[in-house]
Amino acid sequence: GPSPGLSGAGMFADRTAPGADVQSLWRSARSARCEAKTCQTGKISTAEAAAQSHAARDAAVQTEQGKDVVQDFQQEVQVDYTGLLSFLQRVEDTVIKELNKNWKSHAFDGFEVNWTDQDETVLCLHTLSYPKAQDQNLQVTSVSWNATGSVIACSYGRLDNGDWSTEKSYVCTWNLDRRGLNPQHPDLVVDVPSSVMCLAFHPSQPSLIAGGLFSGELVVWDTSRTEDPVIWRTGMTDDTHTDPVYQVYWLPDTKHRNHARLLSVATDGKILVWREERDGRLALAEGFAIMAQQVPRSTRLKKAAWGEAAVGVTSLSFSHFDADVFVVGVEGGYSLRCSALAQAAALPRPGGSVPLRAPAEFAFSPHAGPVYSVSCSPFHRQVLHGGCYQNLFLSCGTDGQVHLHSMLQTQPLFALQLSKKYLFCVCWSPVRPLVFAAASGEGVHLFDLARSKQKPTVSLKQSMSDCPVYCLEFNTKHTRLLAAGDAAGTVKVWQLSSDFTEQGPREMSHLEQLASEIMD
Question: Which InterPro entries has this protein been placed in (predicted)?
Fold first, then answer.
């Protein structure tokens, strides 16, 4: 807190100090279901302290006002001057000593007061969980918002090692707009025979949700059918993934507006596209396989392990500007730029009903361990000579680093050592071009590159203990909401401050500049 010198100065100020705001925020944060432990609190209190010292200077000026004002003031308040004088004489030495000490202190060197702060706090609105899943020590492996933005779904499973393939698990949904919302009683619970590794709500049909299982299967549920919600599934065939599915993604089907296709990625190195059949089957429409020979040799892995890790796909993100370009992250530590138009056959040819193609075109400078998440910027597009353009993307992984890349060069534009622990997920804000969130072994980190390229603007502790956060998703309809799922089996819905959702005046040009500075 502020030193006695500063608080003393504040006492004599006769205008309201901004400290009152902090109390009300603290109260509302307390009344929310959980406290947001953010690194912001420190910053705010130092700003208050600085503000109070200004108040003291103002007070000095105010004493020189007209005599009438003083008389009015005296009529209102009876002042015990003798008492005041003896009090001032008593504290004078202490106050002078403290002021001198503060004068020499370097505590505020380089500190600038930011007067434009609107709503700095990030509040936790909901803490959701399914006690039965927590009793089985299941973790939240994935979260997804539905098309209306009011329903949040989470999948339960296990991300750490062990044979969890036989473990039964759950998909749960909560409608946050419902009046009788019970955070420990989901609106819908679907029992699933295998651990669910990933989830994705359909982009336009609010009740459809796809999941990828530990067994390699894909399932699509219709949450409006409470009796038997399964409407499509791959089953176990020669086409099914032979490894856990780590991401599912709905592809817009340009030819048939109502039939979105489903894309899945797994650590067996395959990227598969499925179409819905009438009999409730998901049939393989086309597919790709990452080939070890398309990935640069990593010196960090033994030969035997290399082949498998090189191709194990953990995550995928499509360019928002070219539907045929996507980036994948692999267990071998690389991010790869891929083309959906690639014609080369994947060799040796994997079994299955459809020949797979080799999509990888370009490998980026690797992380020091497996990549767990990639995310293409929804905003940045720069057209360069020859008609090709660059797009920015983020990657993160077990080395605790976030890399910001341009699609066109191997080296990252910058690499941030964010954590000593693993990073599990990274995603760009849907509304602020310079904002992204990352999930780590310690919690949730929110970045605003307009403020700093070195450190998070806010770090949120998901729980009192250091609990890894595995998954994050911004809400594109209610843009102040961010959902985060953790290893303890809870989903927190965070309400971001307006700082994170309102675009600054030159934000797009700031992003362009960030990319081009480094291109030169």
Answer: Dynein_IC (IPR050687), WD40/YVTN_repeat-like_dom_sf (IPR015943), WD40_repeat_dom_sf (IPR036322), WD40_rpt (IPR001680)
Contact predicate 272/264, CB 8 Å: yes
- Please state, in angstroms and rounded to a whole number, the distance separating the CA atoms of residues 390 and 337: 12
pTM of this structure: 0.74
Cross-strand pairs, 394: 375, 404
Residue 330 tokens read as: 């692999």
Q: What is the enclosing helix (H) or strand (E) of 44?
A: helix 40-62
If you search the block for the tokens 């700082």, which residue do you land on? 499
What region does 202 belong to: left with phi over 0, alpha with psi -120 to 50, or beta? beta
Among 498, 513, 516, residue whose Cα is nearest residue 118? 498
Provide the edge-to-edge strand list for the sheet that holds 313-318. 313-318, 325-330, 335-339, 360-363
**Token pair in block for residue 299:** 């010196």
Non-local (6+) Cβ contacts of 486 within 8 A are 139, 140, 462, 463, 467, 468, 469, 470, 492
Locate the DSSP E strands across 278-390.
282-289, 313-318, 325-330, 335-339, 360-363, 371-376, 382-383, 389-390
In one letter, which amino acid is 235? Answer: G
Of the candidates 119, 155, 174, the one whose C-alpha atom is nearest the C-alpha of residue 246 is 155
Give me the residues paired with residue 230 across strands: 221
Q: Rounded to whole angstroms, how far apart are CA atoms 437 and 131?
A: 27
Strand partners, 357: 288, 345
Task: Per-residue pLDDT tens, the chain, 520 aa: give them.
Answer: 444 443 444 444 444 434 333 333 323 333 333 333 333 333 322 233 333 333 333 333 333 444 444 454 445 567 889 999 999 999 999 999 988 888 787 776 655 444 444 456 789 999 999 999 999 999 999 999 999 999 999 999 987 655 545 578 999 999 999 988 999 999 999 999 889 999 999 999 999 999 999 999 999 999 999 788 999 889 888 899 989 999 999 997 666 666 679 999 999 899 999 998 888 999 999 999 988 877 776 555 555 554 555 688 999 999 988 889 999 999 888 899 999 999 988 877 767 889 899 898 888 998 988 999 999 998 866 655 455 556 889 999 999 999 999 888 899 988 988 888 899 999 999 999 899 999 999 899 999 988 888 889 999 888 777 789 999 999 999 999 999 999 999 999 999 998 898 887 778 777 777 777 655 4
Which amino acid does the sequence have at 481? Answer: L
CB 342 within 8 A of CB 358: yes
Name, in order, each residue with C-beta under 8 angstroms of 300's C-beta and a sequence gap of 6 or more: 333, 368
- Radius of gyration of the chain, Cα coordinates, nearest whole angstrom: 28
The sign of the CA dihedral 383, 388, 393, 399 is negative
Opening angle at CA 186, ends 184 and 189, nearest 5: 130
H or E stretch covering 45: helix 40-62
Instruction: Give me the amino acid identity at 158.
Output: R
In contact, 489 and 498? CB cutoff 8 Å = no
